[in-house]
Amino acid sequence: MSQTVQPKPERVQVIVNPAPSRRIPLLAILNQAFRDAGIYWDISITHGTGDGSALAREAVESGAEVVAVYGGDGTVMEVASGLIGTDVPMLILGGGTGNLVASELRLPTQLERACDLICGEEYTTRHIDAGMMGDHPFLLRIGCGIEVGVVQEATRELKNQFGKWAYVFAGIKMLQETPEANYRLTIDGKESINVSGVACVVANAGTVGVGRLTLAPSVDVNDGRLDLFILKKANIEGIVQLASKMMGLDHIRREDTEQAALDASQLVNHWSVESVKIDTDPAIDIQVDGDVVASTPQLVRVVPEALRVVV
Q1: How far, rounded to the nearest angstrom, does the alpha carbon of residue 306 sit from its chain's CA centroid?
Q2: Each residue's pLDDT tens digit, 261-300
Q3: Backbone angles phi, psi at 54, to 5 degrees
Q4: CATH of domain 3-128
Q5: Which tens digits make up the pLDDT trace of 180-224?
Q6: What is the sign, positive or negative, of the torsion defined by CA atoms of 71, 77, 78, 79?
Q7: Burial status of residue 147 (CB atoms within 10 A of its CB: 0-12, 13-18, 19 or more)
Q8: Which of 9, 265, 228, 224 is nearest to 117 (CA)?
Q9: What angle (nearest 5°) sits at the alpha carbon of residue 50, between those of residues 47 and 56?
Q10: Where do the structural domains in the chain lie, given as residue ranges?
C-alpha cells in the first residue's frame, strides 16, 4: 500500500447528498474545521442520480485540490466515478447508513475527525483499485441474486429504524425467498465454469458493514484483483457457520478452523480474478454498490490504482 504525503490543500469542494444526512449542524461543522485550518471551501448539493459524478468533474475543472463527499455509499461511488483517473483525491465524510467504503479504508465516520484528515500541515493519500462493469465503476462490489433483493428490501424506513442491521434482516428474508440460478462464468477470458447458487458477488472490497464481518480475509482493495463468490443454497445453520468464519471466530482452535473452512467451502465458491463475464439464463438484475443498474450478461474487470483517497 503506497501512500503519499503532501501539504495541506488550499481549496476543497464538498459535495453533499441531503437525503440521508444526520441531524447535525453540517455547515457549521464544515465551516469551523476548514476556516480554522485556513482552507477555502465551497459546497455543492446533489438532487438526483448522476449529480455526484457531474459535480465532481466540475470541481476538478474549477481547480479543487480535494473533493470531499458527504452522503451514503451510493453518493461516495458517484463522486468517485467523477474522480477516477484524475488523481484529485477524494475525502470521505461518512454521512450514510453503512459507510462501507470508509470502514474498508479504516476512516473515521465522525464528521469532525474526518475533516481533521486534511486540516493539519500535511495530509496523506493512497491509491485504491476500482471495479468496472460495462460503463459502471464500483468501489465495493456488484451482485445479483440475494444481493439485489437485499438492496430492495432494505428500505429507507427500515434503515432509519434499524441502521445497518436493516441489511441483515433483509438478507435473512431474501435467503429464504431467493431461488437458485444457473451461472455461466468466464474467468480472465479463458476458464469457463457452470455453477448454480442463490447469489453471485464480485468484490473489490471485503467489508460487509456489520461488526467484523468480511467477505473473506483475502479480499484487498489494493491487490489489483477482484474476488468472485457464488453462494450456494444454504439453511440458516449453514449461514451461521459461514458468518462465524467471516467474523474470525473460527481461529480459536485448529480443528474448529478446519471444520469451518470445510463448511464454508460447501457453501461458497471463491475465485481471485482480473475479469469475469457473468451470464445467466434467464437474465437477472445486478446491483452496483447499492443501486440496481443493469442485468446479465455483463463483463466485470478490475482497474488497478484507479482512485486517490485521503486516509
Answers
A1: 14
A2: 445 556 788 999 999 999 998 888 898 876 788 899 999 9
A3: -65, -45
A4: 3.40.50.10330
A5: 789 999 999 998 999 988 888 899 998 765 555 677 788 899 999
A6: positive
A7: buried
A8: 9
A9: 90
A10: 3-128, 136-304
